[in-house]
């Protein structure tokens, strides 16, 4: 099983559709503990990504990841722009010149992306951020779990943010008032990984 | 929601176009990426000051572009920081060859995007210093938060450092001055109503008829605590005491007192708060020698106020008094 650029394009297209259809939900989650625009920002960024992919279809996974990363950094803004942008940029560096990524290489790409996010945002598991969904899912993939298990881990990670006090980002200003709300970043990360599970390898 | 807008996704662009049309002698607009710069930019031989942040805080920052204050401002989407390529382009456009100071408010998004921009500019051989403003005493400054937010001190830092740059101070001196302003200023705010983002049409939170968000930020994020309404003098004291105790401001200190409206609070009420705040400052032995009252760092249509105290030294006072010619802050020109 390997992910050619067409499968990975499906991933990104699905993400764009998901962020668009969950725009209000992500905004509402963000309004509870942040400023209410996480869905709008991601939808804007991924709409621009789709535009660029249609104009200039990339030929390798690496060039796809780079285009996605650069576009998110230059259109999303906020913290999620640089964080998701770095995720794809770092993933692209691992993908090299390969035409398709086998499961192990894809896992290494995602792991590099995760490290990129943590280098920039300095969040750790339990801080009530996107890391709480990404980290357990990517760890599962690194350990050769299948995609269904990984997305289950992401969902559990997202749900586990509900009782937490936030230690990073704007939600950290709220102290105990952040308790009882799922983290919007963990929720969007979950949507992103769900789409990867739906992108059929060939 | 009723608002004086056309298309929700054109709010920021159209507001910037209008702002520049209303002050063509002072500022100009670059679109895609969006940034506002001095009409006479770049000023060769002068340190350039660049700031930026989400839109929705008008007149900050674009209203503070002009002689004696900022060289450029990068407005992001509403409550969303600008992007690295945008900050890079704005900085390069005003580079006068003497280095650039980025004045950054302490929010995760602003810090990350300015940091990425600074790396890009340094790769191009441009000297960049950054000062992160974090003056909000409502936030616990600890390892367990993103640190204190940057609020009212940003306006004071941009004014005072802008005057220093205009007077020919070098990058190291202006950076030190900006750091010293941040170290000498403390702020806190409260909200009487939430704000509504015109891009989403949703209020940022809901607040009961008789409730106040105490320790509010400027992005519509809830404050630390919800308290019942009380008279303006009491609320002013609830803001002033934590500010005074935090630095701490001491008897005999000379201070600048800044009462800032959050967008929908009339000047009438801001003056009532000013009256109470200056009395309290005097009771604590502080000598208020400079003042600013008005809506300078807003949160869209939020009703509320923030108070900032800055302990002045002679150079800060001198640069505060120096001419400033921007759309929103203007004297001596």
From TrEMBL, chain A:
Molecular-function GO term, any one: glycerone kinase activity
GO cellular component: cytosol
Ranges where the DhaL domain occurs: 6-198
Pfam families (UniProt xref): Dak2 (PF02734)
GO biological process terms, semicolon-separated: glycerol catabolic process
Domain of life: Bacteria
Swiss-Prot/TrEMBL keywords: Kinase, Transferase
NCBIfam families for this protein: dha_L_ycgS
This protein's name: Dihydroxyacetone kinase subunit L
UniProtKB/TrEMBL annotation, chain B:
InterPro entries: DhaK_1, DhaK_dom, Dihydroxyacetone_Kinase
Keywords recorded for this protein, A-Z: Glycerol metabolism, Kinase, Transferase
Biological process terms in GO annotation: glycerol catabolic process
GO MF term list: glycerone kinase activity; phosphoenolpyruvate-glycerone phosphotransferase activity
Domain DhaK: 7-331
Chemical reaction(s) catalysed: dihydroxyacetone + phosphoenolpyruvate = dihydroxyacetone phosphate + pyruvate
Enzyme Commission number, as recorded: 2.7.1.121
Highest taxon of source: Bacteria
Entry-linked Pfam families: Dak1
Pathway field: Polyol metabolism; glycerol degradation
A GO cellular component annotation in the UniProt record: cytosol
Protein name in UniProt: phosphoenolpyruvate--glycerone phosphotransferase
Organism field: Acidithiobacillus marinus
């Amino acid at each position: 099983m390997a992910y050619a650029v067409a499968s990975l394009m499906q991933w990104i297209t699905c993400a764009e559709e998901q962020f668009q259809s969950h725009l209000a939900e992500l905004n509402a989650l963000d309004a509870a503990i942040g400023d209410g625009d996480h869905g709008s920002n991601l939808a804007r960024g991924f709409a621009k990504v789709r535009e660029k992919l249609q104009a200039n279809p990339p030929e390798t996974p690496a060039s796809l990841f780079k285009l996605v990363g650069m576009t998110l950094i230059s259109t999303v803004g906020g913290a999620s722009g640089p964080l998701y942008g770095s995720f794809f940029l770092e993933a692209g560096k691992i993908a090299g010149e390969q035409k398709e990524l086998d499961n192990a290489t894809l896992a290494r790409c995602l792991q590099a992306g995760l490290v990129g996010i943590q280098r920039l945002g300095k969040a750790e598991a339990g801080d009530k951020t996107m890391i709480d969904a990404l980290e357990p899912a990517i760890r599962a993939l690194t350990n050769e779990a299948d995609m269904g298990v990984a997305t289950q881990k992401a969902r559990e990670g997202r749900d586990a943010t509900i009782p937490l006090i936030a230690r990073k980002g704007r939600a950290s200003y709220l102290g105990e008032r952040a308790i009882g709300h799922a983290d919007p970043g963990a929720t969007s990360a979950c949507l992103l990984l769900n789409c990867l599970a739906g992108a059929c390898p060939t | 929601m009723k608002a004086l807008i056309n298309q929700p996704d054109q709010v920021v662009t159209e507001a910037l176009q209008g702002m520049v049309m209303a002050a063509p002698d002072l500022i100009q607009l670059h679109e895609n990426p969006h940034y506002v710069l001095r009409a006479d930019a770049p000023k060769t031989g002068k340190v350039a000051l660049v700031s930026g942040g989400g839109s929705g805080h008008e007149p900050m920052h674009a209203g503070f572009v002009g002689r004696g204050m900022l060289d450029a401002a990068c407005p992001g989407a509403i409550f969303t920081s600008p992007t690295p390529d945008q900050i890079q382009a704005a900085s390069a456009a005003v580079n006068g060859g003497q280095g650039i100071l980025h004045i950054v408010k302490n929010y995760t998004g602003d810090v990350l995007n300015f940091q990425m921009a600074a790396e890009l500019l340094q790769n191009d051989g441009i000297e960049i210093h950054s000062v992160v403003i974090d003056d909000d005493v409502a936030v616990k400054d600890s390892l367990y938060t993103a640190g204190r937010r940057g609020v009212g001190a940003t306006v004071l830092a941009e004014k005072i450092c802008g005057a220093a740059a205009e007077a020919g101070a070098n990058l190291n001196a202006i950076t030190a001055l900006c750091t010293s302003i941040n170290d000498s200023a403390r702020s806190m705010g409260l909200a009487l109503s939430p704000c509504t983002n015109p891009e989403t049409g949703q209020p940022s939170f809901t607040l009961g008829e008789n409730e106040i968000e105490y320790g509010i930020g400027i992005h519509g994020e809830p404050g630390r605590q919800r308290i019942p309404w009380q008279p303006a003098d009491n609320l002013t004291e609830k803001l002033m005491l934590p500010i005074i105790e935090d630095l701490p401001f001491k008897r005999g200190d000379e201070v600048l007192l800044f009462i800032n409206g959050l967008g929908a609070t009339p000047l009438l009420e801001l003056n009532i708060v000013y009256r109470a705040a200056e009395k309290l400052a005097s009771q604590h032995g502080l000598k208020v020698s400079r003042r600013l009252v008005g809506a300078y760092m807003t949160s869209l249509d939020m009703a509320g106020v923030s108070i900032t105290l800055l302990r002045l030294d002679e150079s800060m006072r001198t640069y505060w008094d120096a001419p400033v010619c921007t759309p929103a802050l203007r004297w001596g020109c």
